[in-house]
Amino acid sequence: MINPHETDIRLLKGIGDAKAKQLLRLGVLTVWDLLTYFPVRFENRTHISKIFDLSHDTISCINGIVISAPEEHYVRKGLTYYKVPVRDDTGIATCIFFNNKYIKDYLKKGYEYSFYGKVSIRGNKKEILSPEFEPSSQSQCTKCIVPIYPLTNGITQKFLRKTISEAYSAYSPYFKDFLPPKILQEYSLCSIDYSIKNIHFPSDLKALEIAKKRLVFEEFFILQTTLRKIKSAGKSISGFTFRDTDLSPFLSSLPFKLTNAQTRVMEEITKDISSPYVMNRLVQGDVGSGKTMIAAASIYMCTKNGYQAAMMAPTEVLARQHYNDLSPILSKFGINSALLTGNTSLKQRKDIYAKLKSGDIHAVFGTHALITDKVEFSKLALAITDEQHRFGVRQRMQLSEKGVGVHTLVMTATPIPRTLALILYGDLDISVIDELPPGRQKIDTYCVGEDMRQRMYSFIRKEIEKGNRCYVVCPSVEESEDSSLKSVEQHHTFLSQKVFPDIPMGIVHGKMRANDKEKSMTDFVDGNTKILVSTTVIEVGVNVPQATLMIIENAERFGLSQLHQLRGRVGRGTQKSYCILLCSSFSEETKERMKIMTQSNDGFKISETDLKLRGPGDFFGTRQHGELHFKIADLANDFSVLKDSGVAAEKLLKADPYLSSEENFYIREATNRLSEKLTL
Ligand code: ADP
Ligand code: MG
After folding, report:
1. 259 lines ligand 1 (CB under 6 A)
2. Which residue has the higher pLDDT, 611 or 641?
3. Alpha carbon distance, N-terminus to C-terminus of the chain
4. pTM recorded for the entire structure
5. To 5 degrees, how large is the angle CA 391–CA 395–CA 398?
6. Is the CB of 256 under 6 A from ligand 1?
């Protein structure tokens, strides 16, 4: 049977090896790939102008009869142009073509064509420069809404239009609809045939919208069905079963009691790891909610059962902090731990490799260094990834793949509203720590304008004189081309020379060498510097209890969740802490967003509001791009379709968990294909 999904593009008329190679650069291998190579935008060329009405410097479409055969004009070597006079019932215009000797073959005297191009009027002479044209009986590039595709060398718009149109005519009888009729009906979606036709060659804007809606729905629907299937499949992969799950010795060694939320999350984890199947769990908790203890308790349980555990963090500072905090607690129970990062000396590294392989090290903390080939475990059973949003799924899996049947725990401090978390992390079980340890004080947050800058500097000085430390965060260095933004380097120079020449000050940003970054961080942690000027690189997990003041420059530029994360860097000690959001402009939206920051310290509430105010765009950095790559859907704009398709996916899997029914055959195929891609 003919299947456009599996038909090589070279079976299309006029496509040989050379063209196929060029198309491959666009990711087009099969006929279906070509048919789903979607336009990035459209040009509405439906309006036909009369020659009389043409105005200078517009792009217009006309119908015209060729008055006389194209006439060649030689300018100099390499520059020849052709003039073709055309008329309609209101006047005459001249089409001009440069270096196109074939024009004589295409445009014949006495025939009518449609032209589309830029109009130039000099005196009473009307010219259309290098227009696109076609016989007026056709409407592929004129008189219609024309698709514009992203191109590559050797591939032109005209070629794509023609080839896609031919592919559609030849293969549309063989299209299969992934979506069962029931879903099409319930969500008023058009057929696949209609949508492919109209996404490329829409008869009007309404048709385009209808076509697009269906394709977006389909894309989200298949993604969400796939994620949910991966999740339920995970529930049948056997994993290490931890039999001894008594946490009480560990818990009683801590100087505090777990919060109710931590206890609940530990119960969820315990349930997972004492089952015969692997755990795939995401722990979401606001900054300071105590995720590290969840990791520690899980590591304790794992090693107590005779297995090894690994915990990966995105930065050296953070990995070291985890190691420093947890290894003393774990060693009380005879658990040997180690720290492995890019900076670990070769000698130490070799020793760690050997001991991980022999099983003498029970728990290892580290950075990406943990997923290099050299690292082998004797029996890894638990892989923890902290600040998951800084890693891709691939890296997370690489750690788990250091063993077979390894339980995976990922942690994130980015509070994602539940609706979104279900979509983004549909393949994971989710635990939420929605409570902070007792005694945490509210971080007083103020939003100010430039007029308060001097007072703010006095405030910084007062805090430093009390023995406290201060962060000053600027938008990232890359953005510094925009002169209205505070660049971290300039600002550091300014503050250290003009404002606080007497106060030791450090700088840290993403463009620095890893070692220098590390040194800056350590200096601040140790108190050698009192003010740290930085970009958002400090956002992740660092703990400096003496830091009581967070200044954020150009606060209006940051997402609310990010502001909240940054603010979470202070208020970690016993001293009263403050956050000052300095805005350099105040739109209505900025005012509203800053108001939430000053009123609430609750990350989930803040993220819900951000979602309402700005849509989900800001959240999608949290699951890396390439990973969730959409052909047509746009997460930020198509949010309601995203929700609908989530509900539909849920319903479908409830009714047919294995997608084994006849009508779900094609969805099953599509989800299998995607899940291979996602987990490969
Ligand atoms: P995060 O969730 O941001 O990773 P951490 O795990 O770093 O937060 O915890 C922040 C601080 O709170 C740490 O100093 C930790 O020791 C402390 N902490 C964690 N759990 C509790 C608790 N139940 N009671 C009191 N303090 C706690
Ligand atoms: Mg943390």
Report:
1. yes
2. 641
3. 29
4. 0.69
5. 160
6. yes
